Amino acid sequence: MRKFWVFGGIGVGMAAAFMALLLVGTYSAAAGLAGAGGGGAVALAKGAVPARFQPLVQKWGNLCPAINPALLAAQLYQESGWNPKAQSHAAAQGIAQFIPGTWASHGIDGNNDGKRDVWDPADAIPSAASYDCELAGYVKKVPGDPTDNMLAAYNAGAYAVIKYGGVPPYKETQNYVKIIRSLEKSFARPVGRVAPSRQAAGAIYFAQKKLGTPYLWGGNGTPEQQGRFDCSGLTQAAYRTVGIELPRVANDQYNAGPHPSRDELLPGDLVFFSDDLTNSRAIRHVGLYVGGGYMINAPFTGAVIRFDKIDTPDYFGATRVTKDGAAALPTDLPKDLPKDLPAEPSSDPSPDSPSDPSSDPTQDSSPDPTPDPSSE
Questions:
Q1: How far is 308 from 310, CA to CA, in rounded Å?
Q2: Nearest CA-CA partner of 125 in 46, 42, 61
Q3: Rounded to two decimals, what is the model's pTM?
């Protein structure tokens, strides 16, 4: 069960004043960091790639100049959601979603065990990187950004990129390039300060008005649910009011933008919590940061939406939501995703994330063992 530090003594009536102090202090600190920055090779954001795949992505993501580990991670996440057993209706297979014909021509024996296995990430991830670099070689003389041209060749074929002298005027291809480049930012560890969010204030305003509302597992704030939320339902609704549509489940929300470090947090950032600090797919809780080390949080059954401290041992990291980042998140990942998220703990009366990330969080298949008192 998510253990929270409760900020006692703050009534809903005092929330605005408390929030104002937090915002002023946090933005003042941010101003002092505004000049921070630096360069360096592309590294992966903490936990963004599941630990068992991270060495492969880090190694093979540097195979050629047109790709980098974050870009390769974005492609794999878009294709399969890190599921080595994914299979699409079009017969695309494995973590990199190769169709059989493409695998036959471009699959490699990445782990040197004498066989090429599309279902083995140790072969499929190197093959994805190798295929990217092969495409980049085909279009290396085409004007424009080499990586954009490589991604366009991946989607539309190298001939189309050569014919049009860059990304072809196909809506699907242009959208694919934009999606992968946006997702790339959510897998890359920032080398400078992450730009502030333009929509953060509106999201906070919405969440602030919900302080004191009883928690509801699977709650989306509908009239039938008496306006109640769970954690990811609250953050989704808050950003929806400013024109950004987030996924419903907390671990999917993590990839909706770049990841500021703890000392660079700004109000409006999403803050995440997990029992496995090496894998973003294991995230099970999210809150909305408001400054000063506090978040607005829908914690668990029996509690109300309130302020809580973020500095607890299960703090995973943060995301600065962007419109492009949220829009880039896949909505049609292959079905039968692995149940690698923690099962519903018997000690937690109201886990926010179901064990199957492809399931509908509003459909609770097992009754909450601790009934929400507000529903009695």
A1: 6
A2: 61
A3: 0.76
